[in-house]
Amino acid sequence: MKNYILTTQNLTKTYGKKDAAKDISIHVREGEIYGLIGRNGAGKTTVMRMISGLSKATSGSFRLHGDNKFGVGVLIESPGIYPNMSAEENLRLKCIAMGCNSKAYIDDLLKTVGLENTGKKKAGSFSLGMRQRLGIALALVGDPRMIVLDEPINGLDPQGIVEVRQTLERLRDEKGITIMISSHILDELGKLATAFGIIHEGRLIDEFTTDELNDRCGQYVKIQTDNNSAALALIRQRGYDASIDSDGFIRIENATDDTIAINKALVNADIGVRELTIKNISLEDYYLSVTGGTHNG
After folding, report:
1. Is residue 285 part of a domain?
2. In percent, how much of the chain has pLDDT > 90?
3. pLDDT for residue 247
């Protein structure tokens, strides 16, 4: 098992009488991508700011394990870039401040985030995805072993999301960098992260790996027919827990071994089966179930 690179112990931030984050104890393993999940105002950014040194905790503590001098690279909110400078010039300024200013070093950072061919193009004319990747490059200056990214794919088009995801996967796989990332796009986060923490109303209510999520959630059957009302009634008569999703499909719990029998029963009742699939319960499904949200299909 990999060692922890970051742990927090009852980390708390209070503004006035309101706890923005309360008793947060998280565990991030070295070399993993850790997804922090929660609604707006749940406390995700507050936690990220504390562990990045941008905000002082009211109580509790956090620890960076191993070489405590490595620091944490940060991209919270919008990237701090100069729009009238190129990507290389932006990086050079940060590198001078960090004492690691060499052309080879800057070129390597540009290549790492896929901006090596931008030349003298001003950062102000970059696409949103390119600006986010430049922000990630700035967070990498100084060679941190861990970077913290708050909503780095928010507002990106599909191509931009893919580019940022591929960049983060390269950082993990080729550089061994640990990444903590928050995102509202749970489907995309589910593709990228291997461990998760759910923050709800300022508290950490669950922490789990992808494997643990699969073990907990299992699978369900999803069916579309030419008469869903009649099909739902028949399926329920046979003793299954079934409902209609918001996308118009019938969802059946605990029936993945009975799909042949269910399909046969529907056909024998002159109900046409248009689609029958076995689905894994998604990260979004699980998040909604533990926070009391509404299932969206």
Report:
1. no
2. 67
3. 83
Residue 228 belongs to some domain of the structure: yes
Half-sphere exposure of residue 41, counting CA atoms within 13 Å on the CB side? Answer: 2
Expressed as residue numbers, the domain containing 138 is: 4-214
Domain boundary at 180, 214, 248, which? 214
228 shares its domain with 201:
no
- What are 153's two structure tokens? 């794919």
Residues 6+ apart with CB under 8 A from 108: none
pLDDT, tens digit, for every residue of 25-42? 999 999 999 999 998 889
**For all residues of the chain together, what is the average pLDDT?**
90
Residue 295 maps to a domain:
no
* pLDDT at residue 292, as a whole number: 79
| Residue 27 CB neighbours (<10 A) | 13
> Among candidates 156, 164, 102, 176, which has minimal Cα distance to 137?
164
The 10s digit of each residue's pLDDT in 138-195 is: 999 999 999 999 999 888 888 888 988 999 999 999 999 999 999 888 888 988 999 9
296 belongs to a structural domain:
no
The amino acid that residue 268 corresponds to is N
Nearest to 41 by CA among 262, 193, 202, 181: 202
* CA 121 from centre of chain: 30
